[in-house]
Specification:
By secondary structure, the protein is an alpha+beta fold. The chain is 28% helix and 40% strand.
Length: 181
């Protein structure tokens, strides 16, 4: 009878100790998850501030032409500069063009005012959706999806070229050196 009592007591102690360890593990997981979510929220706050300053540069590092494989842009990068409502772009283009450009520059190049600009914030998913239209030599419809750490995906539709997407990052513009003269 005493041995049954000792075995029963031992089982209760071991089982109770195991529950305590599991509770501590789940508490640590919750703490890590909470810290990760706080970091994401802080990163999104910084990205949101940069976006709302309306003074940033999107630097493309990968292109996704319609119907083709993705292309690394490490040696042939491009950019979109946004300052207030002025936009300037110089991006490489890969794909089908419906009209010939005899100027020797076959990329996506425009400089103008961002028209019909729309901004949507998704605070739950930590994303910013921004779209606008630019009329230069062609009409370009630009859609940006910006994530919490400044990563961005840009899709450009044009009247004279196939649609193309780019991945990259938004950053503060680098200070331009003044020319001596």
């Amino acid at each position: 009878m005493k041995t049954y009592f000792r075995i029963f007591t031992l089982i209760i102690l071991v089982t109770g100790f195991g529950f305590t360890l599991n509770a501590q593990k789940s508490s640590k997981k919750e703490d890590k998850k909470k810290a990760r979510n706080e970091k994401k929220a802080e990163n999104f706050k910084k990205t949101k501030e940069l976006f709302e300053s309306r003074d940033f540069v999107f630097n493309a590092d990968r292109a996704f032409p319609t119907g083709m494989r993705s292309i690394d842009l490490t040696t042939n990068s491009g950019y979109i500069k946004l300052k207030n409502d002025s936009v300037e772009a110089d991006l490489p283009f890969f794909g089908r063009s419906y009209s010939a450009d005899y100027s020797g520059n076959a990329g996506i190049n425009f400089k103008g005012k961002a028209e019909n600009a729309k901004t949507e914030y998704n605070d739950k998913k930590h994303k910013i959706l921004y779209s606008f239209t630019v009329n230069d030599k062609d009409t370009y419809q630009v859609s940006m999806t910006i994530t919490e750490e400044g990563g961005a995906s840009v899709t450009i539709n044009s009247n004279s070229k196939n649609s193309i997407s780019y991945n990259g990052k938004i950053e503060k513009p680098k200070a331009e050196k003044k020319k001596k003269g």
